[in-house]
Amino acid sequence: MCTHTRRKRRFVTNVHLHAKEAAIRHECRRSVPRNAARVGGLAYRDAVSASWHPVANAQPSEWLLRQGSLGAPYGVIRRFAFGDPNNPDVWFRVVTWAQSSAERELIGWCRTLEAAAAAAWDHRRATESWRHHLASRRVDAAGMAAQSPSAADLVQFYRAALRRDASTASTSSPMPPTRPARPR
């Protein structure tokens, strides 16, 4: 046998022995003293500890939406599950942001978290657009508050205006000129 094969075999044998020693040491650490409390033939710590942690069952149920990490909040999304606990019907409620829950206004109910976040963002944009419109007509803050539409109506009108603008832009814009094909 060549020296390289002998070295390799000795290395594998040493690694194997070290692994066995480590396993034995690990078993010794896990062994329980004879005078330790036992429950049903098991050590107390083995009988009482759970194989899962309560955090494993935790699910997010409320999201506070803000632009950037330091921005002011603009919406709150809450997850609701209705019906059968094993197969719930999940809905997301979107409301405007206010410090107290009583001051929040319903934007709408959505089937997905993404749709709920989009509705909250659209409400934020619609509110900014509406305020800009009223400010351009020199309406003061008290007048803006008095004329304020509901959050759901504001989002509905904003989205309708976006669809209308998109459809008129696509029909009125001419097609870009196409390149003539090169002769071969």
Q: How would you characterize this protein structure?
A:
- With 184 residues, the chain is an alpha+beta fold.
- Helix content is 47%, strand content 17%.
- The chain is built from 5 helices and 6 strands.
- The protein has helices at residues 3-30, 44-48, 113-136, 141-147, 151-172, and strands at residues 38-39, 42-43, 62-66, 73-82, 89-96, 106-110.
- The protein has a 4-stranded antiparallel sheet. Strands 1-2 form a two-stranded antiparallel sheet.
- Helix 3 crosses helix 5 (151-172).
- Mean pLDDT is 76; it is low at 11-17 and 22-30.
What would the average pLDDT be, to the nearest integer? 76
Largest sheet: 4 strands, antiparallel
Strand order of the largest sheet: 3-4-5-6
Task: List low-confidence stretches.
Answer: 11-17, 22-30
Helix residue percentage: 40-55%
Q: Tell me the β content.
A: 15-25%
The number of helical elements comes to 5
Order of helical and strand elements: HEEHEEEEHHH
Radius of gyration: 33 Å
Report how far apart the termini are.
Answer: 72 Å
* Quaternary class: single chain
Specify the structural class: alpha+beta
Write the SSE topology.
Layout: H1 3-30, E1 38-39, E2 42-43, H2 44-48, E3 62-66, E4 73-82, E5 89-96, E6 106-110, H3 113-136, H4 141-147, H5 151-172
Antiparallel strand pairs: 1-2, 3-4, 4-5, 5-6
Which structural traits does this protein have?
184 residues; alpha+beta; two-stranded antiparallel ribbon; 5 helices; 6 strands
Short description:
By secondary structure, this protein is an alpha+beta fold. Helix content is 47%, strand content 17%.
